Amino acid sequence: MKHVLDTHDLSVDDIKKILETADHMAEVNRRQVPKVPALKGKTVATLFFEDSTRTRLSFELAARRLSADVVTFLASSSSVNKGESLRDTVETLSAMGVDAFIVRHKSSGAPVQISRWTGASVINAGDGWHQHPTQALLDAYTITREFATPDSLTGRTVAVVGDIKHSRVARSNIDVLTRLGARVVLVAPPALLPNFVGTWPVEIRSSIDDVIDNVDVVYLLRMQTERMESAAIPGLNDYTRRFALTPERARSLQPHALLMHPGPMNRGVEITVDPADVPGSRILQQVANGVSVRMAVLFSLLGGDTLVASGNGADA
Amino acid sequence: MSDAFVIRGGTIVNPDSQFVADVLVSNGVVADIGAGLTADIVLEADGLFVSSGFVDLHTHLREPGKEEAETIESGSRAAALGGYTAVVAMPNTDPAQDNIDTVRFVRSQGERAGLCDVRPSGCITVGRAGDSLVDFAALASEGVVVFTDDGNGVQNGELMREALARAAALGVTMAQHCEVSSLTTGAVMHDGECCSHLGVPGWPSAAEIEMVRRDIELARHTGGRLHLLHLSTAESVALVRAAKKDGLAITAEATPHHLSLDDTMLKSFDPVFKVNPPLRTQSDIEALREGLRDGTIDAVATDHAPHAGHTKEMALDAAPPGMLGLETALAVVNTAVQLDARRLVEVMSWNPARIAGLDAVHGRPLATGEPANIAVWDLTSVWTVSRENSASRSRNTPYHGMTVRGRVHHTINKGDIVVRDGKAMK
């Protein structure tokens, strides 16, 4: 594995192996000194053409816990805004000696393009509406570990609720979760479903009330309020009435059901209940798992064959 | 005037006959056709086809305004290497070709380069802004026959109706770029299954179909000559087929890329495959091929659209649409669509010459006394396209690394050998 650009490039075995490695990383993260020298001497550059402080910090923390050197490139404070081509930016940073780029871009496909212009590994940290592979991996990690079924989600149903059309999280999650065996149900107003959704391996429902009491996971997407300005999309109040997780709806969740969200939450829009009041909420656990899974991805690309060989005994 | 020469032993492709003969060219015209002709200079054409030079209805030469991407000279050279002896230069230059000075400039730069006949088109609206019509009569008096806002469709129906009405009166042609822009805001690629999975803003077929439908009705109403540029959808082909059955004065073109490449090329996110209109689906490709075979599509036109390297090294949504086409057109069309030599010359030369109003000097049968605008080519040579070998100033060919069949050997422009054995002579 050279890059992680698109979940479709990962085999089910690749996915399972990354999640298994994340178990080891989670063990590292529970230590008093949560740090191993696995990537000592490696340089990781976060290359964020779109702001996302949380995702960037999660990756940077992951790299540092593996002892990599981390540099940060933020487009807002760079020459990108002066019209430098994407290629020039990447080649310039590449020339400084970078082993892995972690790329966030508002345009779908930018990390794929970048991977053609550098010898370094490229990890997609979210591109446009396209993909957010590490989010899908950390979500799969969270669900499989919560249900203690590390190898399969067969028999489980995940409802993904919200703006599917413009969501890289949805595209990545649907791919990973269905290939692990889960049944995925999309819940969204028609204007927020992608065109040609009939070619996706999912079922569609038009109201959250159709799914709330019979699914294993409710996965809420962040509702981008700026999208609501489009005339094609129902108003915010209408959205909240039909699709938000309200306290009443939260009460009809099955006892074992999980509540998840990729963050940051729009309280009062897609979620009106306080997640702290929902026993099945794993929203903060997702964030914690994110660091472990990103460590696993970095190690899979830059590390040696085994964690034991290159680390200092993170073989729990 | 250049020296006399003989094109020896090729198969001449004329509208009503094909035969093996030598062609003697002297003083800019075909001086003789027959067996055993001699001259000091001989172009071997044994096993090759000899036809009137190709005519491209749709070429972006970028001069004036974007000379880093192409100049009239570099674009003319690419045209000559593709077997073209005439190109219609698109008007989206800077300044736009909406005035006599710019039109004269483009034409004279073409004459200066001396590689092929560069015929400027004119804009339909001032500055291609879609607000007010240009003075068609003034540009027509400069020899402009084709008017288009290419790159932009004329959105305002009343303006287009008036343009077609004036076209009818002047005997010129309105060439429409069919795109309802309110349906394509921010659009990047064909709105289909592939686009849905890649998560990029979709470019619906309806954006083209709706304008094709409207303009066919406006042509019916006004009697104006309408040419439909770079059709990309199966439905457009069906609409044109029906309109032609009704006897309307409508012509249509398809590009080599819409005949050969589909939307799945965008899985690479490589902006070299971004083009307007976008690459569509296999069923659209099949419909275009059928239209080209049955006469619904009159001409192959390249939409040769050079872009400087750095502009295609942006993110897919930021990169400009367009791809090179002149040097690969014959080979790509021959590889994608099985046409016999006669139909190939018809869609590459005779029909586009007529549509562009150039049929007094281009797209002529090869016969004694005719102007010597000639292409010599084959349909069997197999070769691999390399962007590094392009004569264009730009490198944005979507065919880089692909193997194609058919090759241009010699091109004669006004009696001058401008391409010999696949090499530009100047």
Looking at this protein, list some descriptive labels.
heterodimer, A: 316 residues, alpha/beta, five-stranded parallel β-sheet, four-stranded parallel β-sheet, globular, disordered C terminus, B: 426 residues, 19 strands, 23% strand
Distance between the termini of chain A: 24 Å
The amount of beta strand of chain A, in percent, is: 5-15%
Determine the most extensive contact between two protein chains: A-B, 26 and 23 residues
Shape of chain A from CA axes? globular
Oligomer: heterodimer
What is the makeup of the main sheet of chain A? 5 strands, parallel
State the total count of DSSP E strands of chain B: 19
Gap from first CA to last CA of chain B: 16 Å
Radius of gyration of chain B: 20 Å
Q: How much of the polypeptide of chain B forms β-strand, as a percent range?
A: 15-25%
User: Which residue ranges of chain A are poorly predicted, with pLDDT under 50 across at least 5 consecutive positions?
Assistant: 308-316
Instruction: Give start-end ranges of low-pLDDT stretches of chain B.
Output: none
